[in-house]
Design goal:
The complex is a heterotrimer of chains A (260), B (313) and C (305).
Chain A (H helix, E strand, L loop, with lengths): L5 E10 L2 E11 L4 E5 L6 H8 L7 E6 L2 E2 L5 H7 L1 E3 L12 H8 L8 H6 L2 H20 L15 H14 L4 E5 L7 H18 L2 E5 L3 H7 L2 E6 L2 E6 L1 H6 L1 H8 L8
Parallel strand pairs in A: 3-8, 3-9, 6-7, 7-8
Antiparallel strand pairs in A: 1-2, 1-4, 4-5, 9-10
Chain B lengths: L1 H32 L6 H15 L21 H29 L4 H23 L19 E4 L2 E4 H23 L1 H11 L1 H6 L4 H26 L7 H16 L4 H16 L9 H15 L14
Antiparallel strand pairs in B: 1-2
Helix pairs in contact in B: 1-5, 1-6, 1-8, 1-9, 1-10, 2-3, 2-4, 2-8, 2-9, 3-4, 3-8, 5-6, 5-8, 6-8, 9-10, 9-11
Chain C lengths: L3 H22 L7 H18 L13 H26 L4 H21 L20 H22 L2 H11 L1 H6 L4 H27 L9 H14 L5 H16 L6 H16 L7 H8 L6 H4 L7
The chains are: A alpha/beta (260), B mainly alpha (313), C mainly alpha (305).
Chain lengths: 260, 313, 305
């Protein structure tokens, strides 16, 4: 097996008396789509927060291409190639759609502040490149017509796609998607599924995805892990997970997931 | 040596008590609304001047009505209480004009900071119009303290009676408030609103009434502090409360925003620390509170006794 | 009504408004501007009265290049102080940051009051004058304001300014997009301090005397009011707010002592009547069809493939 892109070992996060993530282990291989499922409150988002540097772990470690990265600030992790979206949508609401992307494209390419102040040729070139990249992404995600709109005024599905575009704009190799299909209707969910596949191809992405909608994950993922009360209770291909008695007991058995 | 130390400690505790009063005022409002009422310092001034007028003090030559004064003259204690109630009413007014309109439209909390500062500027300058910028000493000096001697000998140390009264009064007020918050129905309702306004509303608590109550009590605490400091030192001008308001702010953060025990402990700590500044460096005393505040903010941003909050992502 | 002296003060008000605006544009409510203003002013007052190499003459004159040098030095010193303090305080959020910066203002004020060489309560007086009349100060004040305005305008069109706007909207999301938010906030804080420091150096000469009262909590309030009433969405807001609110107390002078009450009323009622401030992006759009905020996007339309 090749070197994993991301690996978590015995990762834990405690909030007071609550162990939200409890000694979780798994590795994500380059190029795969890795799903994370579990009932509400199973610790999925907390796990994302720890991996993306938003919340420091209270135990265990995270490795990026075999290098330890736990405890690093989110912007450092992003610069390593790890980008995320947020379950409850955290766009820069007052900025335009295009500006949301330009913010994420700041370092692609980098340009000096002095050049920016003096509007140097180098700065203008960098700005042009950023704009091209931004328009490209808008087109890929079907947001071109909305480029000048304020992000806060977009429809729900458009905002979800803008979050993905913004994360992609930082040029990640690993994209963490936190419930990208939440609130979408079945047709939109299908489109999203297709879109994620396309984006992975075009940007050579590895994708980690939290999702409640199990059928979508089963179709999309190469492998998946199941969390319950912070503990990883299963890991494997969708087929293996589907047959795992513990999973049926904890997740599918309760009926919270299958119908959500 | 022991006597001076005792004196120092008592002085420190006395001013610490006043800081605690101001900080508690901030705390009450902060815990129900999550905002800071920057007019608190102005209400402190109001308390001082009201006490002065109620005790029969006359307006000076630079005031709006030179030589005018309230007829009669209440004894110190009564004047202090009425003045505190008066400051509480001004506090209510501040809530009406500076906070309520913003709350109704869910405006940014930053705006309440500005409007309450504005309310403070208005109040202080109205005081200045009425009373002039001059300083005032209290009418009968400390004789007003109901015939108590000006100083007492305790353990061989000469202690100014007013210092002792200051400490006892603020301790009494703080204790009464804590008990009320803890035990009474009204106090529990106020705490419920502070915990979670929506749930409290569902339980049938009128949260608007609780907000008004918090502002009244907060203003009254500041007014009490102003009256006490006025009698014990003097009224050096309408702006004198602003300095106390700022120090109260330092105490508030020192103790942790929204924490009642924190405000009390922070006040005492600040008062004692100031009292221990040697007189050769007394000019720097005013910076001490802020230096401590700075240090605390950096080491423990939630204050000494405050709760840490975790942002939900 | 408005004489040259008042005009200079208004321009300096606009400058201080911009100094408060810069951190606020990055979502940071800092009330530290008066501290940096005081540091710059004190430096200029000390240098020009103590250091003969700057060329103060016996009859109170002062070479203009020395004034410019002092403005630069005042900015640098204030900027260094901001660099030092900012690393510590910018970890704080919201109201905690506001209170910490008030603490900074008070510490600086007490220091200037008590340091052995700053003249105590009286302060430093007979600061030499580079210009014979107030009108002379108009030019350096205008030049500094133009520089600051140009800086703010350029910021909108470059990564730093966009990063500031992003942090104002959502600091956590910004950091997850790879922005070193600490660095961005610190840059805004230092720029704000440099602007206030340079303004202070100019003000010290203009006012002729300098003491600890120049940078106090009162100034924190008034400068914040410049931004809130002028509007914090574009840099023109604080400029307009600074100009108007500095002029207001002077224009109200005929009503005597009531003017301070009226000034308070303006601060009290302004946010209620105009929560966005006087100058909003929408207003600018209506006025001239040019919006500062969307300037970046408009420029881009050509780039669409």
């Amino acid at each position: 097996m090749s070197q994993p892109l991301l690996e978590v070992r015995d990762l834990s996060r405690r909030f007071g008396g609550l162990l939200a993530v409890d000694r979780v282990n798994f590795a994500v291989q380059p190029g795969e789509i890795f799903g994370l499922i579990g009932p509400n409150g199973a610790g999925k988002t907390t796990l994302f927060n720890v991996i993306s540097g938003v919340t420091p772990p209270t135990g265990g470690s995270v490795f990026w291409r075999s290098q330890p990265i736990s405890g690093q600030a989110p912007h450092r992790l992003n610069r390593l190639g790890l980008a995320r979206t947020f379950q409850n949508l955290r766009l820069f609401d007052g900025l335009s759609v295009l500006e949301n992307l330009l913010v994420a494209l700041q370092r692609r390419p980098r340009s000096s502040a002095l050049g920016g102040l003096l509007n140097s040729a180098g700065h203008q070139r960098a700005e042009r490149q950023r704009l091209e990249a931004a328009w490209q992404l808008l087109e890929e995600l079907g947001l071109t017509a909305l480029a000048e709109r304020q992000a806060g005024t977009l429809a729900y599905g458009d905002r979800r796609r803008l979050e993905m575009a913004r994360a992609l704009a930082t040029g990640p190799s690993l994209l963490l998607l936190d419930e990208p299909a939440a609130g979408l209707n079945p047709a939109e969910k299908d489109q999203l599924c297709q879109l994620i596949g396309e984006l992975r191809q075009r940007h050579q992405l590895t994708v980690m995805i939290i999702e409640h909608h199990v059928p979508l994950l089963m179709r999309l993922c190469n492998r998946m892990a199941v969390l319950d009360f912070g503990v990883r209770i299963a890991l494997g291909t969708p087929e293996e997970v589907r047959r795992d008695p513990q999973v049926i007991e904890a997740y599918l058995g309760t009926g919270t997931g299958g119908s959500a | 040596m022991i006597e001076t130390l005792l004196q120092l400690l008592l002085n420190g505790a006395a001013s610490g008590g006043v800081y605690a009063l101001v900080a508690l005022g901030y705390t009450l409002v902060f815990s129900v609304l999550g905002v800071i009422n920057f007019a608190q310092g102005a209400l402190f001034s109001v308390g001082g001047y009201l006490t002065f007028l109620l005790m029969g003090g006359k307006i000076g030559v630079n005031g709006a009505l030179p030589g005018w004064g309230l007829p009669g003259g209440l004894p110190f204690w009564l004047a202090l209480l009425v003045a505190a109630a008066g400051s509480g009413l001004v506090g209510l007014l501040v809530e009406r004009v500076a906070f309520a309109p913003l709350r109704r439209r869910n405006a940014e909390p930053l705006l309440a900071l500005i409007t309450s500062l504005g309310a403070g500027v208005v109040v202080v300058n109205l005081l200045q119009l009425l009373m002039g910028a001059e300083g005032y000493a209290f009418p009968h000096g400390t004789d007003a303290l109901g015939g108590l001697p000006g100083a007492l000998m305790i353990a061989g140390a000469r202690i100014r009676t007013i210092q002792l009264l200051l400490l006892l009064t603020s301790a009494g007020a703080v204790l009464a408030l804590s008990l009320w918050l803890e035990r009474s129905k009204g106090g529990r309702a106020l705490r419920a609103v502070a915990e979670d306004a929506t749930t409290a509303q569902l339980l049938g608590i009128n949260s608007e009434a609780m907000v008004r109550l918090a502002f009244f009590l907060s203003g009254a605490l500041a007014g009490l502090g102003g009256g006490l400091i006025g009698v014990s030192v003097s009224l050096p001008g309408p702006y004198f409360g602003i300095g106390y308001g700022l120090k109260g702010l330092a105490v508030l953060v020192l103790g942790g925003l929204g924490s009642v025990p924190g405000a009390i402990a922070g006040g005492l700590l600040m008062g004692l620390a100031e009292a221990l500044v040697p007189s050769a460096a007394s000019g720097w005393r005013d910076a001490l509170a802020f230096a401590i505040l700075f240090a605390v903010l950096l080491l423990r941003p939630s204050g000494l006794l405050g709760r840490r909050t975790v942002e939900k992502v | 009504m408005i004489d040259n002296g008042l005009l200079v003060q208004m321009l300096m008000g606009a400058l201080l408004g911009l100094s408060v605006y810069l951190p606020l544009a990055a979502g940071q409510l800092s009330l530290a501007t008066p501290a940096f203003y005081a540091v710059g002013g004190t430096l200029a007052a000390l240098l020009s009265t103590r250091w003969s190499a700057l060329g103060a003459t016996a009859n109170g004159g002062f070479p203009v290049p020395s004034l410019l040098l002092e403005m630069a030095l005042g900015g640098v010193l204030a900027g260094l102080l901001a660099l030092l303090v900012g690393r510590l305080v910018l970890r704080l959020q919201g109201i905690y940051l506001a209170i910490a910066t008030i603490a900074l203002v008070e510490i600086v004020r007490v220091a200037i009051l008590n340091l052995p060489f700053t003249g105590g309560a009286v302060g430093i007086f007979a600061i030499p004058q580079p210009f014979d009349t107030a009108a002379g100060y108009l030019l350096p004040a205008l030049a500094l304001l133009a520089l600051a305005g140009w800086l703010c305008q350029r910021l909108e069109l470059m990564p730093l300014g966009r990063a500031m706007a992003a942090i104002r909207h959502d600091e956590l999301a910004a950091s997850c997009m790879g922005l070193d938010t600490t660095q961005v906030k610190l840059t805004a804080f230092v720029l704000s301090a440099m602007l206030a420091g340079s303004t202070g150096a100019l003000a010290a000469h203009f006012l002729n005397t300098w003491n600890a009262r120049q940078g106090s909590f009162d100034t924190s309030i008034t400068t914040l009011a410049f931004v809130v009433l002028g509007g914090s969405r574009t840099w023109l807001g604080p400029v307009v707010g600074g100009l108007l609110l500095t002029a207001l107390p002077e224009l109200l002078r005929p009503v005597g002592d009531v003017r301070l009450v009226l000034f308070g009323l303006v601060i009290l009622l302004g946010p209620v009547l105009a929560p966005q401030g006087l100058v909003t992006p929408a207003l600018l759009e209506r006025l001239g069809g040019w919006s500062l905020r969307s300037g970046a996007s408009r420029k881009t339309e050509n780039a669409q493939p």
